[in-house]
Design brief:
Elements (H helix, E strand, L loop, with lengths): L1 H25 L5 E8 L3 H7 L5 H7 L7 E7 L16 H9 L10 E6 L2 E7 L4 H17 L2
């Protein structure tokens, strides 16, 4: 009888040790969403997007870009409010939060807001520090939350 209990306990220990690995393997992968905020009449947005600066191109060609969900929210004029039509359907939740007062549009454009599983974890503004600060910080966030 004690042999049988030993075997059962051994199997139970092996199963329990393997459980965290199984749970981790089945856990959903975190989603990192980077939302780019711009306006068609924003000269700095146009500059960031242009081949002249190459900033947007380098971002979109990066290894980190392949791991994120990237969405653009763009309206006609800086002075205009953003409308639901400015948001792709999969990020309508950002617009809904704005309507409830839980989110605000970036005060400066261009702007980038980073969400991890729909929780805002970072915000960046302007092109001046894109190469030295913003882009490296986004790369770090991708590495930190989505792995190498």
């Amino acid at each position: 009888m004690s042999k049988r209990i030993s075997v059962v306990l051994s199997l139970l220990v092996v199963w329990l040790l393997g459980l965290p690995w199984a749970v981790a393997a089945d856990a959903p992968k975190p989603e990192l969403v980077v939302v780019y905020w711009g306006s068609k009449d924003c000269r700095w947005c146009t500059y960031w997007e242009s081949p002249l600066s190459g900033m947007e191109k380098r971002f979109k060609e990066s290894q980190e870009f392949k791991k994120i969900t990237y969405r653009v929210v763009k309206n006609e004029r800086l002075a205009d409010p953003y409308t639901l039509q400015d948001f792709s359907p999969d990020i309508a939740w950002v617009y809904e939060r704005m309507q409830r007062g839980e989110e605000k549009r970036p005060p400066v454009r261009p702007g980038w807001v980073v969400y991890l599983d729909r929780k805002r974890i970072a915000t960046f503004y302007g092109t001046k520090n894109w190469e030295e600060v913003h882009f490296p910080e986004i790369k770090w966030l991708v590495s930190e939350h989505l792995g190498k």
